[in-house]
Inverse folding.
């Protein structure tokens, strides 16, 4: 079994680690775009061109499925990616977990990039899945970049700024960018101070897309299997190593423990 994941940078680590935990025997292909990142400020057409190049590099390794582990690319590029790769390679997009967050009808905060916050895409998801909940969209400028650089001070500053915009009575927090799942602990700590320790539910996408990828290829989670899966890293189409910043996160260290080189 071989599963590929793509993103502009290391936001794919969360979903890749989820796949690794669910299927330790799976071969993983991580395809990113350090030459073209960040994707967020690009036009939709330009972003789609970059995403197609990254996907083609992964597809050359003949994976059984491809996870688009990037909310921005899923918003703008999923149809052309599917048009080119399916049905030969199932393509699984990443959607913010608004539906499960809103299910209880509580106070929901959606942390996302400024480009996604207020977008027709996100507003459409809110209208479809969160009509019975009170929803606050929280823009997080600079947070994805800080996570990408594994810059703890910048992460702390950007998380604190987003926490200040989050209602104090929030009950559910949607992590609407794959990068944010890598710093969930920091986000939890900042919001604990904001909400005076109230119990919050956090909703990411990593495990859900991992399970969906397995389902699409007729497989199931078997976390007890031997850890035999290897790792291939592609950086703007070139064979490479996990970036050093990846080791700043538990997910990256998990993947690096499987005979991976780190640059």
């Amino acid at each position: 079994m071989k599963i590929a994941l793509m993103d502009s940078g290391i936001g794919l680590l969360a979903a890749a680690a989820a796949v690794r935990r669910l299927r330790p025997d799976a071969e993983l292909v991580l395809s990113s775009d350090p030459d073209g990142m960040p994707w967020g400020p690009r036009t939709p057409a330009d972003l789609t061109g970059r995403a197609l190049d990254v996907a083609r590099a992964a597809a050359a390794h003949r994976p059984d499925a491809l996870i688009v582990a990037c909310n921005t690319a899923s918003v703008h590029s999923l149809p052309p990616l599917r048009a080119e790769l399916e049905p030969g390679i199932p393509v699984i997009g990443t959607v913010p977990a608004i539906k499960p967050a809103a299910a209880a009808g509580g106070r929901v905060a959606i942390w996302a990039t400024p480009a996604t916050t207020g977008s027709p895409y996100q507003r459409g998801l809110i209208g479809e899945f969160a009509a019975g909940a009170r929803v606050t969209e929280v823009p997080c400028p600079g947070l994805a970049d800080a996570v990408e650089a594994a810059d703890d001070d910048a992460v702390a500053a950007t998380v604190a700024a987003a926490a200040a915009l989050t209602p104090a009575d929030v009950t559910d927090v949607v992590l609407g960018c794959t990068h944010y799942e890598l710093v969930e602990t920091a986000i939890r700590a900042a919001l604990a101070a904001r909400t005076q320790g109230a119990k919050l539910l956090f909703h990411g996408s990593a495990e859900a897309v991992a399970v969906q990828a397995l389902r699409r290829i007729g497989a199931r989670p078997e976390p007890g299997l031997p850890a035999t899966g290897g790792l291939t890293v592609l950086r703007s189409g070139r064979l490479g190593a996990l970036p050093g910043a990846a080791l700043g996160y538990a997910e990256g260290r998990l993947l690096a423990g499987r005979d991976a080189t780190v640059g």
Summary: The domain at 2-93+206-256 is CATH 3.40.50.1860 (Rossmann fold). The chain has two domains: 2-93+206-256, 98-203. The CA atoms of residues 169 and 221 lie 36 Å apart. The longest helix spans residues 44-59.
